[in-house]
């Protein structure tokens, strides 16, 4: 089968025709992929910002159809439609029992278990997934069933960018009706934080981004006010829009030290700042101490407080009911053979999401 393999940091992915999958474990499922989104985290693995053992099949945001299941699988059968979660939800570990599925204690085992083969070499998949492949093996707990009327060529985006952004506003914070919200960085995660704020019936919603195209998109996804163009005084803008207080909730989705610092400056005393973006895991980020005063609550989240078995089906139904925009996030659809074009576009800051169709 075809799969896109990263062999070296900083190099293009190699699309090969000779990649296989390992045998099916008792609690594993074999999934035929229908679509996969190119996420900024994939580029971060490619450039070394996120460490990952190589070689590996990249991709962690996908959807597909179950082909076969292990003998111990009880919740899925062949033919089921699934969205893949890069964090499993075993529902029995301490974290899952506390409602923190995004910290599931089986995550490490999933990440470290290789399920692909190239010749006689066994290789892993990103976060234990590897969605840039035509087929894959994944634990039952990471394959989330959705209704079969859900269009799998679209809802793969729920598995990362949508869940992270919408979840941060609706599940993690959660934003109260009427609260003021500011979102820094209006890429896929930021746009979803905007529409999450709207789902939560937020009051004034402010989008902050330098790019005019993303500023325009932010209005489509729920922003009332937009700022961030070069030379603008964002702090003053947000303070003026919030009666001098600062925003009740700030979601940083730009993934930069400047964005983190800006978030601390524009959240009100007693408000909540959520870091959704990321920089290199070894990078130090400095703050003006006064910006942290005033009982501000700071949270770092990689998955928007996700409980995948609860949230993925809910998000999929929101899409079908017209409450959630997904098609508007997709700026290109590419066959697997052209996946490096999607990575190049992501690095250039072009578009929002490229969806890879592995069988085209």
Whole-angstrom Rg:
20 Å
From the spread of the alpha carbons, the general shape counts as globular
Averaged pLDDT, please?
A: 94
Note the beta-strand portion: 25-35%
Could you give a short account of the major beta sheet?
7 strands, mixed
Helix content: 25-40%
Rounded to the nearest angstrom, the distance between the terminal CA atoms is 13 Å
Given as residue ranges, the uncertain stretches (5+ residues, pLDDT < 50) are none
SS class? alpha/beta
Compute the number of strand runs: 19
How many helices? The count is: 11
Describe this structure as you would to a colleague:
This protein has helices at 40-47, 94-97, 107-112, 152-155, 161-172, 188-199, 212-220, 234-241, 257-266, 308-320, 339-347; strands at residues 3-6, 14-16, 19-21, 28-38, 56-57, 62-69, 81-84, 116-118, 121-125, 135-139, 143-146, 181-184, 205-208, 225-227, 247-252, 267-275, 297-300, 330-335, 353-357. The protein has 360 residues and is of the alpha/beta class. Strands 4, 6, 7, 10, 11, 18 and 19 form a seven-stranded mixed beta sheet that branches. Strands 2-1-5-9-8-3 form a six-stranded mixed beta sheet, with no helix packed on it. A hairpin with a 2-residue loop joins strand 8 (116-118) and strand 9 (121-125). It is globular, with a radius of gyration of 20 Å. The protein starts with a strand and ends with a strand. 52% of the residues are buried.
């Amino acid at each position: 089968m075809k799969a896109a393999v990263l062999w070296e940091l900083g190099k293009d992915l190699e699309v090969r025709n000779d990649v296989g999958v390992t045998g099916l474990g008792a609690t594993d499922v074999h999934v035929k992929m229908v679509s996969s989104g190119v996420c900024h985290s994939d580029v971060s693995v490619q450039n070394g910002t996120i460490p990952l053992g190589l070689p590996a099949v990249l991709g962690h945001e996908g959807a597909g159809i179950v082909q076969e299941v292990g003998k111990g699988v009880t919740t899925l059968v062949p033919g089921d439609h699934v969205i893949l979660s890069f964090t499993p939800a075993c529902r029995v570990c301490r974290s899952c029992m506390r409602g923190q599925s995004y910290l599931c204690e089986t995550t490490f085992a999933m990440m470290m278990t290789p399920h692909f083969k190239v010749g006689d070499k066994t290789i892993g998949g990103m976060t234990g997934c590897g969605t840039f492949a035509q087929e894959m093996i994944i634990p039952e707990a990471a394959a989330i069933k959705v209704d079969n009327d859900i269009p799998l060529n679209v809802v793969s985006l729920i598995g990362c960018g949508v869940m992270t952004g919408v979840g941060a506003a609706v599940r993690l914070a959660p934003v109260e009706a009427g609260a003021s919200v500011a979102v820094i960085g209006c890429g896929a995660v930021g746009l979803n934080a905007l529409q999450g704020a709207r789902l939560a019936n937020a009051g004034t919603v402010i989008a902050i981004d330098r790019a005019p195209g993303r500023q325009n998109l932010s209005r489509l996804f729920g922003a009332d006010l937009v700022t961030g163009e070069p030379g603008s005084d964002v702090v003053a803008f947000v303070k003026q829009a919030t009666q001098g207080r600062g925003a009740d909730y700030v979601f940083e989705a730009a993934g930069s030290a400047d964005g983190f610092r800006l978030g601390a400056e524009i959240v009100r005393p007693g408000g909540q700042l959520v870091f959704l973006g990321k920089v290199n895991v070894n990078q130090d980020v400095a703050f003006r101490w006064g910006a942290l005063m005033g009982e501000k609550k700071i949270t770092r989240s990689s998955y928007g407080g996700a409980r995948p078995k609860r949230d993925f089906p809910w998000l999929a139904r929101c899409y079908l009911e017209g409450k959630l925009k997904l098609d508007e996030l997709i700026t290109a659809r590419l066959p697997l053979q052209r996946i490096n074009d999607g990575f190049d576009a992501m690095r250039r800051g072009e578009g929002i999401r490229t969806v890879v169709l592995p069988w085209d």
